[in-house]
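[Q] Does anyone have a clean structure-token version of this?
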Amino acid sequence: MTPQTRTSLKELQELDHEIAQVRSTLQDFEHLLEEVDAPVIRSEQDVKGLQSRLQEIKLVESRLELTIEERRIRTKKVQERMEGVRTVREEAAVQAELEMVRRALENDEKEALSLLDQILRIEERLSEQEAAYEEALVEIEPRRVELTQERQGAEDRLEKLEGERGAFAEGIDPKERQIYESIMAGSGGVAVSELTQDGACGNCFSLVPLQVQNEIRHGSMMIRCEGCGVILTPESAEGIARAEAENMRILDALRITEAEREMERAVIAETIATEEAEESLVVEAGEAMKAMPTEEEPESEVASESRSRAATLEADEDPSLSEASESVSSSDDEGMDEEATDV
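[A] Here you go.
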């Protein structure tokens, strides 16, 4: 398999992809036309249904008119027979027959009137439906013409591509074309794939051994991917450009992500520093509060009097304690005198 043949197979695959796309577009046109025609089709069906119903009722009405006419003729004949009767018995029989014919005629005439009324109503509805049908036709006609023209253009394009494909395929080796066709039929529309920039299959991304990569790039044999079975071809200039563009896009995305992470880390560090500074200020304030001196509260009069009484009792029990109690008492009195003087 020469490089030229491999290039031809890639071009053939591109033609097949374009043909498949045009066929898909034609199918889309069919769906679009069905959607556009749906209101008109429903209106047309309504018109046809009313026309069929009207025709049936008119046929029944025509048959009934014939029956009415026959009964009228029969009534006239019975009346003529009435004039020629000679006996009472014959007169009663003719009179009964005449009454029966008249009742049947009356019922037929009522039914005919009902049918005529139905015919009038159906004709009115049919007129309305025909007007709605014509209005729908006028409304969708521009869009329908546009879609029809586009579909015709797609059909012409498909015919041209199929002709080009047939002529192009004739220049490819039949065996190689057969292999290509068999892969194309069973691989979902991919039969030829380029190597990626890092030496992998461009279809399934299975890594290709280095020796096999060299054979694909410089050899003449047809080599297929062991992973997915497609025909492997060397990287094209367009493929290399696409790979480089994709790599640049990934690197740009990584740079942006790293910059965002740096900003996030800076914000977190600033938040931690602020919290540590606040905690340090709280600790310093607590230590300062602990270091502040506290004033001693003066002894209350009740406590002083209680202490004096206890000393007196002890002095009564122990003479040596009496002298000490008196000295303490005198010292307390001097202290109180000094406080009073200061006041």
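[Q] Thanks! Anything notable?
[A] Strands lie at 192-194, 231-233.
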